[in-house]
Structures are given as structure tokens and as C-alpha cells.
Amino acid sequence: MKWNVLPYALITALSVIAAFIRTYALDMGALVNFWVTVFQIAMLSLVWIVIKTIGNKLNNYLPFEESVVKRTLLQILISLVIITPLYVGFVHIIRGFHLAFMNTAFLAIGTVLFFVLVLFMNLAYNAYFFFREWENSIKEKAQLQIEAAELGKDRSMMKYHHLKNQVNPHFLFNTFTSLDGLIQTDPDLASDFVRHLSKVYRYVLQNKENEVVTLQTEIDFIGHYIRLLKIRYKDTFGIKINISEAALDHEIVMVTLQMLIDNAIKHNSLQVSSPLNVTIWDEGDYLHVRNNKQLRKQIETSNQQGLQQLKELYSFLTDKQVIVNDKAEFFEIKLPLL
Fold first, then answer.
1. Where are its TM segments located (predicted)?
2. How many helices (DSSP H) and strands (DSSP E) are in the chain?
3. Residue 46's closest CA among 79, 72, 6, 1?
């Protein structure tokens, strides 16, 4: 039930209860009781409308924020000035029924009860006003939280897209250096290298507006990227991928695997005697990416910006967290499958 309808529902319910009481306590006839009840509902509804109108007007001239006591007393005073003539007219109409119980004592008691009811209705309006303000503030707060979350997501997406679309100068330099050497020593392998390199950048360009892609799509892409790494690092780098058929239909944030493999290469040494091994597999609702740790003595400056932005982005896509296991023997990232 809407809050603006509730007061009239309560007035009707109380008037019906009063009608039953009059029937048995005052032995009032059914027809007379019906019309008294109708007048009572009309009168009390009119009183509520007057009080609500006065309250709404005073909200502009003397809001509760300035003084609750002054505002409440002024509202009661104005409502009494306006409602008293209405009550007198109501009593005059009721007395026209020539009811036996309408003596001076009954009218005196009825008048006191009526003005007590007016006082109560003023307080009820105040409670209604404060509750409505509280309800609106809750809705506004919830809306602000939603907007803040959307802004946070947009900000994370912009940062991640910026990171994703950056071309690492070291990667390009090393790639073209490797390509230059291959052109002179192994033209066929150089051609294969260029083919895989073009597919890597075609994938990035074609999906640059996508937040997520299927794991199958990402695995197909990473195959070309791995081929480039194998040509460049040869036996110093190894990778194993073991993904179940069921997991391939799930989604993953685009170029996540490339970022994590690059991160492993960036932080660890690669030697024939001690190759860097990356293992990728799925387990439950997570995709695991693990590499053995053989940290470089000197590495490029790293503030883990990419990993942090990846965590932020996943926080908007799923309730599950990106889990980092940094052990003495290995470094592992667990990515939620979407």
C-alpha cells in the first residue's frame, strides 16, 4: 500500500470500528449510523488534507531543520484555527439527526476527543514526513551507491583498456630485433613469426572494445602469442595448458593470459638449465595460472598496476575475487571464470 493512501485507510478503519461501537453502546439505528459514519470519514479525511496542506506549506517557510518544536506548535495552532469552524459545522449537521444521546455532556467529551485526535493527526503527519524523508534518503543513498559503482567500473574499464591498448616498447623492440635476426638466418621461420605477430595484433584490434571473451577465444589467441615467445626464448620458456571442455564456454577478461605470462617473464630469469615454466589449468570455477619462481636480480620498475586493475575490473564482473598465491617456489593467480 502506498504511504499517501495509508492515512485514509486508517481513517476508514477507525470510523468503521466506531460505527460498531455506536451500534451496541448507543443503540443507534443502522441508517443513521451509516450516515454518521460517512460524515465522520469525510470530516476526518478533510482534517487530514488540511493538516497535510498546512505542513507542506510550512516546509517552505519554517522547515523542521530550523526548529522542530516551533514548527510543530505553529502547525498545530494553524490547523486548530482552520479546523475548528469545520468541526462546528460537522456538529451542526450531526445534531440535525436529533439523536437522543447528543446532550451537552456527550458533545463536551466528543469535542475534547476530536481536538485530541487533531493533535494526534498533526503528530502523525510529522512522523509521516520524517519517515518519508528517511525513505527518500535511503533511496537516494542507494542510487548514489549504484552510480558510484558504475563510475568505478567505468574508471576501471578505462584504465584497463588504456593498459590493454598500450604497446610495450620493450616488447616491440625485442620482437623486431628477433625478427631481424630470423630474416637473415631463417626466412621461413621469420615468415611464421610475422604471421603469428599479425594474428596477435589483429585479435587485440578486433576485441579492443570487449570486456570479456570466451576462454576458447582467449586460448586460441594465446596460442599465437606463445608461438612468438617460443621462437624468441626457445628452450628457456615452457608452457602447459590443460583446459576442460566445460570451461572453454566460460568467459574471461580479454588479454588476461597475455598479461600474466608477460608478468612472469618480466619478473623471472629464463635459462636453458632452469627454464621458466607456466602452467594454465581450470579447477572448479577458477582458471589457474602458475609459474615457478626464479626472480631476476634486476627487473623493470613494477608497481603491479596491471594486476590491481585486473582485480578491480573482476570485482565489477563477479562476486568472486581474483586470488593471488605468492609462495617461495611459485607464483599463482586464480581467475574467476565468468
1. 5-25, 31-51, 72-94, 106-131
2. 10, 7
3. 79
Contact 338, 286 (CB under 8 A): no
Spatial distance between the Cα atoms of 299 and 53, rounded to a whole number of angstroms: 73
- Residue 305 in grid coordinates: 598496476
DSSP one-letter code for 314: H
pTM (2 d.p.) = 0.52
**DSSP for 157-180, written as a single string:** HHHHHHHHH---HHHHHHHHHHHH
291 located within any domain: yes
Q: Would you state the pLDDT for residue 99?
A: 62
Q: At 59, is the pLDDT very low, low, confident or very high (cuts 50, 70, 90)? A: confident
Rounded to 5°, the CA angle 144-126-116 comes to 165
Residue with cell 589467441: 221
Same-domain pairing of 123 and 183: no
What distance in Å separates the CA atoms of residue 75 and residue 70, rounded to the nearest whole number? 8
Count of the separate structural domains present in the chain: 2
Tell me, what DSSP letter sits at residue 332?
E
User: Are residue 318 and residue 196 in the same domain, yes or no?
Assistant: yes
Classify residue 67 by its DSSP letter: -
Domain encompassing residue 135 = 6-149
Alpha carbon 149 to its chain centroid, in Å, reads 6
In whole angstroms, what is the distance from residue 239 CA to residue 252 CA? 19
Q: β-strand 212-214 against 323-326: which pairing, if any? A: unpaired
